[in-house]
Batch of 3 targets.
Target 1
Amino acid sequence: MCEMSDGILVSITSVEKLEFLRNKVVKNIFGENSEFTIGLHRSPLATTKNNNKWFWFGYNNTVFPLGDFKKWEDGKVPSPSASCGFATRETSDNAMAFAAGGCDYDDARPYLCQTKACDSNHFCDLESGVKAATAHSKLQTQIKQRSFRRINKKMYFKNL
């Protein structure tokens, strides 16, 4: 969906970016929602070299390695079956961290996109951006409603 606005799922490659997102973006966009999809994913190539390695989505269909900034939730190592990353809150101190889960429809979460800055090398089409923002908003609403129903369903069956 981020491609509609010439963007990618957000990559969080430093503590400074993590803090900026937490303090300036997340609370204004997601409110109390503690989880959202980021551009972190396990390599789809089942080779010895890339097996179990995590990557960020880059522009122009590229990827780059997770790197040295690894903020996994409460120090947990991702499950071998997990293949998509998301941001969550740590149970120990409520700080933002990475977690891993599935990539399918049932695991969908709201998502956060990033785009290139507009400048003389990258022209930004305002009309397309507005259309993309409207589409993003509609999809985010659908995902939030489905997540709310899924959480309430789990709580209902848990209380039986």
Note: Helices lie at 15-29, 126-158.
Target 2
Amino acid sequence: MTAISESVKQRDLKQTMQVLIPLEPLTLTYIKVSKTVYEFTRIRTGTLLYPDVLGLVIDVEPLSEVTKIGGIGKTMKRRITLINSSYESILLTLWGDMATNEGDVIERMREERPIVALSKVKISTYAGVLSLSSISITTLQVDPSIPSAKAIRERFNQKLGKKPGTTTWGKNKESVE
């Protein structure tokens, strides 16, 4: 072995060792996550670009796999039918991990007819039907503890003649509070 190659090896070893030896102790920083603040609005085409929506789940379709636009890769999709506070039916499509994770929670709770709060959903119209889609910035809460969710639950209970504080849906359900 030549002196130059030995010198290069030693230099490389020193650089490697320098990378592996921490110079300062690691510190952890905790970030306080803020609570989602919703601004619910009635959905129409031409309204807010990415509105916040509150609705009661009335139907959940099974999870399905679809080919992405352009034919490159696959993603998961789940359709959920909601009713808003004006008793209008709205089709919501969850995509990707949200279709799998939050969609599974909603599907398990379908008989209880949960309330869902969505922040920053995409509005579109297909064949004259208004629909919503989750996008990368969408957040979703199931049965959120917010006054608007309690109000919509009571509104549906009253419309169906149910006692306040009890669920309107499902079999053998007890008090929700």
Note: The first strand starts at residue 53 and ends at 60.
Target 3
Amino acid sequence: MPDHPPAHDLFTVPAGMPARSALTRDCTACGACCSAPDIAALHKPLGVPCTHLQPERPGLGCLCGIYEQRPQVCRSYAPDWVCGEVAPLPTLEQRVRRYLDIYGLSDALPLA
């Protein structure tokens, strides 16, 4: 049998980072991926919620208002270990801040 390299696991925490929750492996509708990164296809700046992100609703989370028509960059996004780090935080603002902290981008945000 051929020896294959192990498949890349998006939930393996990168070297040098503290261990994260292995429990979150699916989208939790926390809204962080629709708010934290800049999304050029939608003219969305860093740290600003997408205009298509609907308000958070109990039991549903933050859902995309154009999910069926969302751009390829959004379709290509897959939950990873960062989701396990940000999803448990209680507010979208806290989730966005932590997401940006992980990637070293918090200093790029304007002061609140």
Note: The helical segments are 72-76, 81-86, 92-102.
